[in-house]
């Protein structure tokens, strides 16, 4: 009789164990929330409108995505005070994206190279020491995906 109970318990364990193990990854996956993080690289302001339209589309499709726009070189131009093109000022569109959680970063090396200080940059943007270093840091240390409009 003891032998039968031990065998029955073993059989039950063999059937129950896979069922319990199969629930573990599902539960772990449900508990694990992976945030989408994307860095948009802009080094030419001629694509600024396209970049911002891409970011708007991205946020519309993935409202919880964390998006950072990093600029350097000629790409900083749309984030300077009073910047505009034939469609008007950039500031309202940048402000709208900022209100939706998008971050804008401007390269200080570029500013220095043009003899500009941080005050030349619109309020919605943050100045970082180096645009390319910021992109590298976001990718390597914070797991951001790189997009180039």
What is the element layout, followed by pairings?
Elements: H1 2-31, E1 37-44, H2 48-61, E2 66-74, E3 84-85, E4 88-89, H3 91-99, E5 103-107, H4 108-113, E6 125-128, H5 131-142, E7 145-147
Parallel strand pairs: 1-2, 1-7, 2-5, 5-6
Antiparallel strand pairs: 3-4
Notes on the structure:
The chain has a five-stranded parallel β-sheet with strand order 6-5-2-1-7, sandwiched between helices. A two-stranded antiparallel ribbon has the order 3-4. The radius of gyration is 25 Å and the shape is globular. The chain folds into two domains: 1-32; 37-147, 3-Layer(aba) Sandwich (Hypothetical Protein Ychn, Chain: A), CATH 3.40.1260. 48% of the residues lie in helices and 22% in strands. With 149 residues, the chain is of the alpha/beta class.
Properties at a glance:
two-stranded antiparallel ribbon, alpha/beta, Hypothetical Protein Ychn, Chain: A
Structural shape: globular
- CATH topology-level fold name of the largest domain: Hypothetical Protein Ychn, Chain: A
Number of spatially distinct domains: 2
Q: In terms of per-residue confidence, which ranges show pLDDT below 50 for 5 or more consecutive residues?
A: none
Widest sheet: strand ordering: 6-5-2-1-7
Total DSSP helices: 5
Quick one: CATH class of the largest domain? Alpha Beta
Residue-averaged pLDDT, rounded? 88
Query: Any idea what the radius of gyration is?
Result: 25 Å
Which class of secondary structure composition applies to the elements?
Answer: alpha/beta
Q: What's the SSE pattern?
A: HEHEEEHEHEHE
Tally of DSSP β-strands: 7
Any guess at the CATH architecture of the largest domain?
A: 3-Layer(aba) Sandwich
Largest sheet report: 5 strands, parallel
Strand content: 15-25%
End-to-end separation in angstroms reads: 74 Å
Range of helix content: 40-55%
What is the CATH superfamily label of the largest domain? DsrEFH-like
